[in-house]
Amino acid sequence: MLGSRPRRSACAGHYSAIVRPSEQGGGTAPAAGPVRGFPIGRIFGVPIVVAPSWVLSVAIIAALGIPVITEVVPGTSTGVAVLVSVLLGILLGLSVLAHELGHCLVARLRGMKVVGVRLYLLGGVSEMGRLPATPRDEALVAAAGPAVSAVLAGLCWAVLATTRIGTVGWLFVLLLALSNLVIAVFNLLPALPLDGGRVLRAGVWRASGNRRAGTSAAVIGGYLIAAALLIWAVALVVNTGSGGVLPAGIALAMALFVAVGAAAERPPRPPNRWPVGLSLASLGTPIRQLPAETPVREVLHTAIDRAVLLTEPDGMARGLLDVPAAQSLAERDPFAPASLAGRPFTPESIVLPDDDPAEVLGRARSAAASVFLLVDDAGRPVAVLRSDRLLAASSMTRTHWWEFSM
């Protein structure tokens, strides 16, 4: 599933947008944060990273699968049950990977840069270089993951017909088919942060012309789905007693995941009115991109009349030069790399073209970021916005903001 994380046992996947180098004109923008885990290679050129928690996923699935196998297929030895359960956990991880690669493939076809795929505890995430530019892009990329999971479930059902009922092989394929079906169905629920919530957002976005309205609708869907899962968990315990504790626990975990994810996606309410007609771009400071290893003394000469964006050799943004820190560093060691005086960007400090200026102002007031990076639709840095300038602009009347922005 898409952006900023469902769990599956329900395994879940999603994609999130992080700002990365643009393929056009060599533009660069910061990533949302470092990808933690172990790189295991590339598939179709997409880097794959496995977080340490993924190993725990295999252990959890194995622990749940062993008693199921020994009960459904009497006479199965503990060793065989363990081996089959571990293999099931690994193949479910590969199923999640296929789900994420579905997002990646369609994103590439829609002109979006794919940064990589990360697998973690009972789930995964596809990281894109930018947010979808249109409702159509959002819907297509979101729907691709569940579509792949549905195809995998269908293939498993086809293989199931060739197995003998009651055998370990039959049960193994059946569990794999059911798991992929659960992945597809769960992710299609109309709730953020699930893929279905992103499809819902795309529909409302297209109908209203307002992405924020689509986000609000999908967040409400998330709360409703979480409430439904919570009611279901209570009903399972009441109606089936101790036998319903395990599925109720899974339902409760899913409800918590959806509720927390929906809350994280909720667009903050703009705390202030923004002067009509005043654009964020008009308040920006021009930027200059320089390698992060450039001597700090040289970088300071550039920082006199513009902001300096420090970049890695691969074009990835390291952060914004902190001028006071750079000046202090230059006094001690003028040839030290400017990266030592860099201020990293956070997701809250990235401003997209369709962001509501009042919402950005709210971030400035809440001290979520003191400096913002304005990027264009292709993910290229456009300008730096400083909180003090945003706050000053918010207090301007319509008769004064034009002079202020100039």
Key terms for this structure?
disordered C terminus, five-stranded mixed β-sheet, CBS-domain, about 400 residues, 12 helices, about 50% helix, four-stranded mixed β-sheet, 3 domains, alpha/beta
Order of helices and strands: EEEHHEEHHHHHEHEEHEEHEEHH
Largest beta sheet: strand ordering:
1-5-4-3-2
Please tell me the total number of domains.
3
Distance between the termini: 44 Å
Beta strand %: 5-15%
Overall residue-averaged pLDDT value: 76
Major pleated sheet = 5 strands, mixed
Radius of gyration: 25 Å
User: What structural class should be given to the helix and strand makeup?
Assistant: alpha/beta
Number of DSSP helices?
12
- Point out poorly predicted stretches: 1-11, 18-35, 397-406
State the shape.
Answer: elongated
| Strand segment count | 12
Helix proportion range? 40-55%
Task: Give an account of the 3D structure.
- This protein is of the alpha/beta class.
- It folds into three domains: 1-188, no CATH class; 194-267; 281-405, Roll (CBS-domain).
- Helix content is 50%, strand content 15%.
- The protein has twelve helices and twelve strands.
- The protein has helices spanning 53-72, 78-109, 135-160, 168-187, 195-208, 211-240, 245-265, 296-302, 323-332, 357-365, 387-394, 401-405; strands spanning 12-17, 38-43, 46-50, 114-120, 123-128, 287-291, 307-311, 317-321, 342-343, 350-351, 371-375, 381-386.
- The strands form three sheets. The protein has a five-stranded mixed sheet with strand order 1-5-4-3-2. Strands 6-7-8-9 form a four-stranded mixed sheet. Strands 10-11-12 form a three-stranded mixed sheet.
- Strand 6 (287-291), helix 8 (296-302) and strand 7 form a beta-alpha-beta unit.
- Helix 1 (53-72) packs across helix 2 and helix 3 packs antiparallel against helix 5.
- The longest helix has 32 residues, at 78-109.
- It is elongated, with a radius of gyration of 25 Å.
- Residues 1-11, 18-35 and 397-406 have low confidence and may be disordered.
